[in-house]
Amino acid sequence: MLTSLRLSHFRCFESLRLPLEPGMTLFFGDNAQGKTSILEAACVLLRLQSPRTSSLSELVHFGAPGFAVAGDLGDTELRHHYGPRIRKLLVDGEAQASSGPYLRQSGLVVWMASDDLALVRSSAEGRRRYLDFMAAQLHPGYGTALRAYDRALRSRNVLLKRDAVPRWNEIDAYTRLLAEHGKMLTTLRRSLVERLRPHTAEAQRHISGREDEGLDLAYEAASGPGDDLAATLLARREEEVRRRQTVAGPHRDDLILMVQERPAAKFASEGQQRTVALALKLAQSRLFLTEKERAPVLLIDDVFGELDPGRRNALMAAWPEESQKLITTTHLGWLDAACGSPRRLVVSGGRVD
Questions:
Q1: In what order do the strands lie in the sheet with 351-352?
Q2: The CATH fold of domain 1-108+296-353
Q3: Is 82 helix (H, G, I), strand (E, B) or coil?
Q4: Alpha carbons 149 and 222: distance in angstroms, whole number
Q5: Which one of 128, 202, 310, 334 has the lowest number of neighbouring Cβ atoms within 10 Å?
Q6: pLDDT tens readout for residues 165-178
Q7: Could you tell me the residue ranges of all domains in the chain?
Q8: What percent helix, strand, coil does the chain show, rounded to 5?
Q9: Residues in CB range of 121: below 8 A, 6 or more apart
Q10: What is the pLDDT confidence band of residue 33, given thresholds at 50, 70 and 90?
Q11: pLDDT tens digits for 280-307?
């Protein structure tokens, strides 16, 4: 549990010192006042990444050289300093050589947001990010393999675009890296989906209130037969010459979502799709609790105002009771007895009261 959060030059906050408590805390106020940035800062502190942008440079307060986020996770103090030329990670004041040791001493996070419906409706990229964010918290080395794969993919695509006649000797050096790191990504993602399936099915039934509304998952790999990416890319060279990009690999994988044995994006109603998005995040929290035996911090951004009381109360009843819940909202009209007596903080103009 986070017992404090401290920000310096982060987004709209020039400075903020925020004590935190167990249970549920509501940050409420108008839009564009800094509510979501508080949750984002907690994620950047605990997981070293933002759920809203791929570039940490976008988080720097206007005119500042960098940002710092710090906080206490139980008895452990975490600090993350970011600048254009330097990044420092400290645990209890001791500098960490890389992100791995830092993350091993940090906490687990589930991020829920009003735009999670895109997990069901939009492209496969969002579903891959969902799996990657989860896998990196469950499997040491996954994040390292993912970053290495992405670097090799970018370099390989540059070479495919650069020359009128591709230089395959150069390109194949990156093909070997893609195959090596891609095999790990595909294997771990596929295993993760299988372990997640019973949790998503249970969550879908619980939130919907219908025993016949099943949700099933399937992992669709894009590395070819036997996940032999090197052989697949060799067989598809003509296509790569034509398209000037890497046409196979984990960057094209997808998580298939089925409701009552039909694709959720095409056949599920809007209510069912919203329930699927909630079920995916609830299942993530249950998997963390089962496999890591630690309750994740739940960061919930402007979700409850859009939910009917039935789904909202079902979701809240199924959360890990031990989880700390940090919630943003623009109004409190949805609060009822089922929510208990959460702490309430007003966020306005980059201030929290």
A1: 109-113, 297-301, 325-329, 24-28, 343-348, 351-352
A2: Rossmann fold (3.40.50)
A3: strand
A4: 14
A5: 310
A6: 999 999 999 999 99
A7: 1-108+296-353
A8: 50, 25, 30
A9: 265, 273
A10: very high
A11: 999 999 999 999 999 999 999 999 877 8
The count of other CB atoms within 10 Å of the CB of residue 353 is 7
Residue whose entry in the numeric block shows the structure tokens 């201030």 = 351
- Whether residue 27 contacts residue 352, with contact meaning beta carbons closer than 8 Å, is answered with yes
Helix or strand or coil: residue 332? coil
- Residue 308, C-beta contacts closer than 8 angstroms, at least 6 positions apart: none
| 78 beta partners | 71, 91
In residues, how long is the chain? 353
Distances in whole angstroms, Cα of residue 55 to Cα of each of 7, 44, 58, 83, 121:
18, 11, 6, 12, 24
Backbone angles phi, psi at 163, to 5 degrees: -110, 145
The amino acid at 24: M
Closest CA to 3 of 27, 21, 26: 21
pLDDT above 90 (res 313): no
Say how far apart CA 238 and CA 260 lie, in whole Å.
40
- How far apart (Å, rounded) are the C-alpha atoms in residues 344 and 321? 19
